Amino acid sequence: MDNIQQRETLGLFIRFTSVCQIRCGVLSSKDDVLTKDNHQCLEKCTNHMIDSFRRIQDAYK
User: Where in the cell (predicted)?
Assistant: First the structure.
C-alpha cells in the first residue's frame, strides 16, 4: 500500500467513524462518556462500513 492509498484509507476510516458515532449515539450523550455498549456498536459499525466499502471496491477491479 503506497502513501496515497494509506491516506485514502485513513480518510475513509475517519469518515466512517464519524457516521458510526452518530449512529451509535456517541455524540449525543451529554457527558461524552464512551460506554461499553457504545464502544461495541462503534466497532461493529466501523468494521461493517469498511468491509462493505472493500467489497464494492473489489467489484470494480
Answer: Mitochondrion inner membrane
Whether 44 contacts 11, CB under 8 Å: no
1 grid coordinates: 500500500
For the chain, the domain total comes to 1
Stated as kind and residue range, the H or E segment containing 45 is helix 36-59
Please check whether residue 20 is in contact with residue 45, taking contact to mean a CB–CB distance below 8 angstroms: yes
* End-to-end CA, the chain: 16
What is the residue-averaged pLDDT of the chain? 82
Which domain does 55 fall in, by range?
3-59
**Arithmetic mean of pLDDT, 33-51:** 87
